[in-house]
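Tutorial handout. Part one gives the primary structure; part two gives the three-dimensional structure as tokens.
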Amino acid sequence: QVQLVESGGGLVQAGGSLRLSCAASGRTFGSYAMGWFRRAPEKEREFVSALTRSGGNTDYADSVKGRFTISRDNAKNTVYLQMNSLKPEDTAVYYCAAKRGSLLRGLGSWDYWGQGTQVTVSS
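Part two.
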């Protein structure tokens, strides 16, 4: 069992930056691929980014590529999402997720989810 707690969300102006953190419980954090997803108002939850257990391989949605950076610190059981050049369309609740095995974008393939943190980007 893995428990995930996100933090770092907030209100920021367009063009600004935020760094989200996701702290995981347990001693098996390094066994899981980690990912970030988001759900904008009146939209489905969608994939944002993910990285492998070692952090050596990453994946990004086209909409955030070049602006967001995912990373992890296995010693701290934490995964991060650095978000730069934020746009109003990035406004959403951001969720952290964990899964065993390879990186997959499908929501159903992820085993554990956090409660989410709100990110609001004003124009």
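Part three, for discussion. The chain is about 0% helix and 50% strand. The longest strand covers residues 92-99.
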